[in-house]
Amino acid sequence: MKRWILRSAYVILAVPIIPALIYHLGLRSWCMHWGATGAEVAATLPGDELLPAYAGPGITHAITVKAPPEKIWPWLMQIGQDRSGFYSYTLLENAFGADMPKVERLVPEWKPRAQGETVWFATPRRFDGQGKMIAAVVQPNRAFAMVSANDWKNLKAGGTGHEGLWSFTLEPLQDGQTRLIARLRGGTPPTLSGRVMGRLFWEPAHFVMEQKMLRTIRDLSEGG
């Protein structure tokens, strides 16, 4: 009986441990830099200067779009729960109560985002209205970067950010194509449990959702 209990305990422990080992030993680097070149991972992108104390390039994903930046930019300006959603797996987002729409057409009534504007990541009715970021960098046809609400307050007061940054950069290529580069940077969670949760859940979840987002933006931009 004791042996059966011990074996069962080992199996239960192995269920989360084995995928975690596979992710960290074989997949983590690929997931964090999916589609990006070494130069893109190492590059300083617009918005990085807002979190100067953050060490490392963070998560950098990239994709080639067969369209110029001006064809991609309008789709970036429509991201947000209050607009088109995030062009990702809407069913998964709504499983967590985000109330995310799915709008895969350009809406002329939606003006380009302005610096200081709130971009909602979930309906304001959920999560105590904290599911949001603030547009901090808006360079038409070039770069769009968002920071946390607390970081925006610090930046407005002359300070720097330390919580998080999510940016999108458009790098034109000579043949009329564009590299769409997405970067996520954030401070180190203060607790061990927070760091473990980040490694085992948030990093893989971000990869799954963002690669779908970039592929959808590519398809929409190429399709006109």
Tell me about this structure.
With 224 residues, the chain is of the alpha+beta class. The protein has 2 domains: 1-32; 34-223, 2-Layer Sandwich (Alpha-D-Glucose-1,6-Bisphosphate, Chain A, domain 4), CATH 3.30.530. It has helices at residues 2-32, 38-42, 69-76, 90-95, 149-156, 192-223; strands spanning 59-65, 118-120, 132-139, 143-147, 164-172, 178-186. The chain is globular, with a radius of gyration of 19 Å. Residues 4-17 have low confidence and may be disordered.
Summarize the structure.
With about 220 residues, the protein is of the alpha+beta class. About 40% of the residues lie in helices and about 20% in strands. The protein has six helices and six strands.
Compute the CA-based radius of gyration: 19 Å
The string of secondary-structure elements, in order, is: HHEHHEEEHEEH
Q: Which runs of at least 5 residues are low in confidence (pLDDT < 50)?
A: 4-17
Tell me which CATH architecture of the largest domain applies here: 2-Layer Sandwich
Question: Biggest sheet, strands in spatial order?
Answer: 1-6-5-4-3-2
Mean pLDDT across the residues is: 85
Shape descriptor reads: globular
Strand content: 15-25%
